[in-house]
Specification:
By secondary structure, the protein is mostly beta strands. The protein has one helix at residues 3-6; strands at residues 11-18, 26-28, 38-44, 47-48, 52-58, 65-73, 79-87, 90-96, 101-108, 116-123, 130-138, 147-151, 156-157, 160-166. The protein contains 1 helix and 14 strands, in the order αββββββββββββββ. The longest helix has 4 residues, at 3-6. The relative contact order is 0.35.
Length: 168
């Protein structure tokens, strides 16, 4: 018998939050605590008012976000690179348009008083869209309990945000 399975190692649901109607940002409170070091966040369902990326901000921090992003254009297979260099948030951690809204990212150590790391894989669902992989870090050692999601343009409607903790 696998002792890791019997010990309950794995993802544990922390919270579920529904996104409102035509909102320009969504704050997810009380998402992180001492119980877990690392988290997985999923956004599914819902729509955006226009094609856009979803940006991620930790607590009230508006500086010090660094990330590297590789993007592959579906139609041509061409690769591009982008960065967040001391940005106000991590950009394009998810995507939305008038047909869908989605994100899949992980945060390492957001509650600990050390640097928070982020990774994500995202898919744009549109003609001439791209697949994206990003990793980054936040240049501070602040302990966070909440995060904010903001579309790069327009608004978000509906959908569900699910936060899971990786059991220590």
């Amino acid at each position: 018998m696998n002792t890791a399975v019997t010990a309950g190692v794995g993802l544990v649901p922390i919270l579920t939050q529904t996104i409102g109607t035509a909102v320009s940002s969504v704050v997810v409170s009380n998402a992180f605590s001492t119980t877990y070091d690392n988290y997985k966040i999923l956004i599914t369902g819902g729509v955006a008012s226009t094609d856009n990326g979803i940006n991620l901000k930790m607590g009230a921090t508006t500086t010090g976000y660094y990330a590297g992003r590789l993007r592959v254009l579906y139609s041509a297979g061409t690769l591009s690179q982008e960065t967040d260099n001391n940005a106000a948030s991590w950009t394009n951690i998810g995507y939305g348009n008038t047909n869908s809204l989605h994100a899949n990212f992980e945060l390492l150590n957001p509650f600990k008083t050390q640097q928070t790391n982020m990774t994500n894989i995202a898919a744009e669902n549109a003609t001439n869209a791209r697949a994206t992989m990003t990793s980054g870090w936040l240049n501070n050692s602040t302990s966070y309990t909440d995060f904010t999601l903001t579309p790069s343009g327009g608004t978000l409607t509906g959908g569900t945000i699910r936060v899971y903790g990786y059991k220590n």
